[in-house]
Structure formats: C-alpha cells, structure tokens
Design brief:
By secondary structure, the chain is an alpha/beta fold. Strand 2 (about 35) and strand 3 form a beta hairpin.
Length: about 575
C-alpha cells in the first residue's frame, strides 16, 4: 500500500513547495499532481512513477511517499484527507487493566482519544464521506473488548472524562478561581476528599491564571476525577509534577482503576512502568501515519521501545537502541573547578532558601532533583546572576546560558531568525550537533507562536546551547517532549558538554532523563513553599539514594536494558533495597 502525504504548512502559496508542485501539475497528462482553484495541491497515490519521483523531490520535505504493508489497508481507522494523516488500529479500554500508550508525538494519539470519547466518528479511510456511522465501524472490528466498548459508546451508555495534555490552556477556557472550577464539575460528590488528596486547599481562592504549571496539572487531574465517568483518559498527567507528586498521582489513578476504565498517555517511562498494566506502542511517521500495536505487558512494551524493534511486527522504529549505563563514561573532563559557591541564603516573600557550600567542576553535568517549590529555579537564577543572594557571594565570573522553565513565546519571530540572533551563534555547531538530533529543520521557517509545546522546548534547548558560555543551566528541558525526544535531547546535551568540556546544571523530574545525563546530583530538601535546602553536589549513586529515601521510592535496574524501574511499594525488592539503604538501584 502506497500513501502520499502532503504537509500543508510547508506547501502554501508563494512557498517553494507550492511553486514546485504547481510547475508539474498535469505535466504527465494524467494529472497525477493537481493544483485546484483554491491553491490546494493533490498527489494521487496511484500516480505514475515519474510523478512520484517529482513529488518526492518537493522542496522543504513537503511530500512523503511511503510504502506500507498491504494488510494494513483493512486496519485503517481514520483518514483526514487524500494526502492527510492516517490512523491504523485503536487502543482498547480494559475493565481489568490500566492501559498505557507509548509513542512519539504526532502519531495520532489525540485522534485515537477523540475517537474513543466519541468526538470523532472514524471514516475507515473514506475521507470524502459525509455520512460516517458507528455501525459501519463496529462491523469491521473482530468480536472483543474494543468492539463492545464502541457499541456502548454508540448507544450512549458510556461516559468519558478527559484530562487534556496542555494544562496551560485551561485558564484561557475557564475564567475564575480554583474552587469555582472544581465545584462546577463535582459530579461524584467527592469535592472535599479530592481537595485533601491533591493538597489544593490553599489554592481554592486563587485564579487559574495565577497558578504554576504543577498546580495547574494537579487541578486538571482533580477536576477530571470529580467527573462521573466510565472511562478516564489522562494525557501526560506527570508534566510539571515533581517525583513526590508523580507517585501520589500514580496511587490515585490506580485507586480509580478499581471502579472505572483508565487509559494513560505518558512520556515519563518510570511513571508509565509503574502505573500501566498493559501498554500499546504507537509508531509511524509524524504527521503522516500512526499504527497502534496490540497491547503487551508494560515492561515488554518499554523494553521494545527502548530497543527500537518490535519483534511481533518485525518493524524497526529507531535506528539505534537507547542504552542506559550505571556509570556513563566521560571524556574531556579535566576535573578543574569552574564555579564555587559559599553558604548562600535568599529570602523571597515567606520563602527562604539556604545552600551549603559547593563546587561545580569543568565538564561536569549535575542533575538537580527535589520537590517543587523548594528553590531549584531560585538557586539556578542566583548562579546565572539573575538574583543576588542575601548572604554569601558567588565570586566566579563565568559566562552563563540559561533556559528557563517557562518559555517566552515571541510572536512573529521566525525560528531560524531567533537561533541566528543568539550571541555566539555558530553555523557549524548548529548543523552538526543540534539540527538533526533535535529535528529543527522542519521548524526553521515557522513562527514561534505556531509551535507545539514539544517543538518550543527543542528550540529553547538549541537556543541555550548555541550561546557561548562556561555554564549551561537548563530548567526542565524534558517538559512536553515525548519519550524518544527526551532520550535524544539528553544525549545531545551530554555530548555537547563532552565535546566542549563545558558544565551544565539540569533541573528535571524525569528520573530516566536525570539518570542518562548526569555525573552527579544536587539535592533540594526542606518544606515546599516555605523553606528550601541545597545539598551536594553528590556522586550520582549517593545523591539519588539520599533523594529517593525522602520520596520513599526504590529503583532497580532492568536486567535487559539497565533502565531504572520503580519497585512496587512493599514488594520483596522494595523491602530488601530499603533495608540496605539502596534506593537508587541494587548492585
């Protein structure tokens, strides 16, 4: 089966792609390539070989011609247009298991959610049909749980609740305070119980536009749980949450699954590993097609995803596997001191941050871990010179490049212009070390306000690294990135530091990301919102043991991939590692 996909954002009037396709429209006499009166381009999938070759050479990578197995044709669930995105197969909500979904962005996860919640009636590939009905869809499916679920959905006997991916859009959709929002959706009559579970009591009178990302996430999950539904969909529930909050959310969602079906899209592999019983992998080509595999145990799904090979389908989804090592090798690290800080303190309102003396070595990458609201960003800003300590002084005069947690969107600014305006921009560095791994080429001609959260994050990381500096401070660089992008971004940052002998502080809550990228750990303790205490730097194992003991979570290493895995609380391994004070991994 051949599919021809046209990315309309890259093919518009006055663009090189549009002019190229317009030039060859109808040139073979069979009109394999067409441009209509509305300047819309079309490429027929049964086009003659010369036209297919022309389409493949369309500038700006605007056209993809892809060959897929013929047997997939009967599995097509939805198609947006002649040359639009296609979705093959669907995940299955289960009464007995929490279902996870793992895969890159742009593969149709949101389309699948919209089908399963009834927002879209799939057209089975008949994109020109205006009369799609559920009965036709249901008849094409084999007998089983998915068919039964869609039949119930058609008869309106199933109610669905959805926690959206982009929680920062909530203040634009709802005006008012937290209490008003949660009261308006309190269909289960669990308002007081959920407020206590999520620790939202102090936020009830605060307007939504005054909340941090983590606070918005907790409010969004709480609002979803207050709704009366048979099936609950959670789209990236861990974003912006620290590991304490992530483990709390895991427990709450697991409790919910005892009385309702649950599907979770999650890019934090440690969270997905512990929360989901079965997991569907979705693979394909971003913006072109997505294929859902049958569900398998979550351990097998994550390991196959990391390996980049799906044995049941005999499909390779990544050129190289992701490799986790207990002690990643370092090159170009001379061990000389880069920046020292004495005892520091900083008071901001009712919050007080105190730091013990420490030192960052040249060429060293330190992971920064701790609960939200314990001063991680404040400490980073002091090192960056954006905040002056009340006590203590950082003497070292070093150049610092800083990527903040919340990215400033500059409307009307073209991505390529933004990157080239960075002080110290080097074309060779960009093209050889950043462009390809961060997949920036398709974004260069776009305006900043048109980018998704993950695309903005990749641009912000590139902008930070392009600046000539001694120390690179990156605050939550994994936010909104899918699981594959997170590992690629971690590898890109680490390789960048190794090649230049530069140093970095990485603030992040994804344990896989921190495990992959870090040489050592800075630990933040204290009382969130009241007091923060900075300890370290510690060696990796020592620092993670200190941090995870506070979280009361133990990690082991997967015997096949060496990736960190969360032990189930109270399990034999959990008890053994706690008795040995080995919270990070067993040797």
């Amino acid at each position: 089966m051949r599919i021809a996909v046209l990315f309309e954002d890259r093919c518009k009037p006055n663009s090189p792609a549009f002019e190229y396709l317009q030039k060859y429209a109808g040139s073979c006499g069979a009109e394999c390539i067409q441009v209509d009166e509305n300047d819309k381009c079309k490429i027929l999938e049964d086009a003659c070989p010369p036209c297919l070759m022309r389409a493949k050479n369309c500038p700006g990578d605007a056209v993809k011609v892809i060959n897929l197995p013929e047997e997939l044709e009967t599995d097509m669930i939805h198609r947006y247009s002649l040359n639009g995105f296609r979705l093959f197969r669907l995940p299955t909500p289960s009464k007995d298991s929490i279902i996870g979904i793992l895969g890159p962005n742009g593969m149709g996860k949101s389309t699948a959610f919209n089908i399963l919640n009834g927002s879209i009636i799939p057209n089975l590939g008949e994109f020109e049909s205006n009369e799609c009905v559920w009965e036709d869809v249901i008849e094409t499916l084999p007998r089983g749980e998915l068919r039964d679920f869609l039949a119930d959905l058609n008869e309106s006997t199933v109610k669905v609740a959805l926690k959206p991916q982009y929680v920062d859009h909530i203040p634009k959709a709802f005006k008012g305070n937290v209490g008003k929002l949660l009261s308006s959706v309190n269909e289960r009559g669990l308002y007081d119980e959920m407020i206590e579970k999520f620790g939202l009591g102090h936020l009830l009178e605060r307007n939504l536009d005054q909340l941090s990302g983590g606070e918005l996430q907790r409010v969004a999950i709480c609002a979803t749980l207050l709704k009366q539904a048979d099936v609950y969909f959670f789209d990236e529930p861990s974003s912006y949450l620290d590991i304490y909050e992530r483990m709390r959310i895991v427990r709450i969602i697991q409790e919910l699954s005892e009385s309702a079906r649950v599907i979770v899209i999650e890019h934090d592999l440690a969270v997905l590993d512990v929360i989901a019983d079965l997991t569907h992998i979705v693979y394909g080509k971003k913006g072109a097609f997505g294929i859902f595999t049958p569900a398998r145990t979550t351990r097998k799904a994550i390991n196959a995803y990391i390996e980049g090979y799906l044995p049941e389908q005999n499909v390779r989804i990544r050129d190289k596997p992701i490799k986790f090592l207990e002690h990643p090798p370092r090159t170009g690290w001379d061990g000389m001191g880069l920046v020292e800080w004495p005892k520091l303190s900083k008071k901001l309102g009712s919050f007080n941050l105190e730091s013990k003396a420490g030192e960052l070595l040249s060429g060293q990458v330190l992971g920064v871990v701790g609960a939200n609201a314990t001063g991680k960003t404040t400490f980073v800003k002091m090192l960056a010179g954006e905040l002056e300590p009340d006590k203590g002084k950082i003497e070292n005069e070093i150049a610092v490049s800083y990527k903040p947690q919340y990215i400033d969107i500059q409307e009307g600014v073209i991505v390529e212009d933004l990157l080239k305006s960075v002080e110290g921009y080097d074309e060779h560095t960009f093209s050889t070390e950043l462009n390809r791994p961060l997949n920036l080429e398709p974004l260069l001609e776009r305006e900043m306000q048109t980018l998704s959260g993950g695309e903005l994050q990749r641009v912000a990381v590139a902008e930070c690294l392009l600046k000539e500096a001694d120390l690179y401070l990156l605050d939550e660089p994994s936010a909104y990135l899918d699981a594959n992008q997170r590992m690629v971004t971690a590898k890109t940052i680490r390789r960048f530091m190794e090649n230049r002998g530069k140093s970095a502080l990485i603030v992040d809550h994804d344990i896989y990301f921190i495990d992959y990228i870090s040489d050592g750990i800075l630990c933040f303790g204290g009382e969130p919102g009241s007091k923060g205490i900075v300890e370290g730097p510690y060696k990796m194992r020592e620092g993670m043991n200190i941090f995870l003991e506070r979280v009361d979570v133990t990690f082991r290493r997967d015997k096949n991939t060496h990736r960190p895995r969360v032990n189930k609380p109270g399990s034999r391994l959990d008890r053994e590692q706690k008795s040995k004070k080995e919270y990070y991994y067993s040797s």
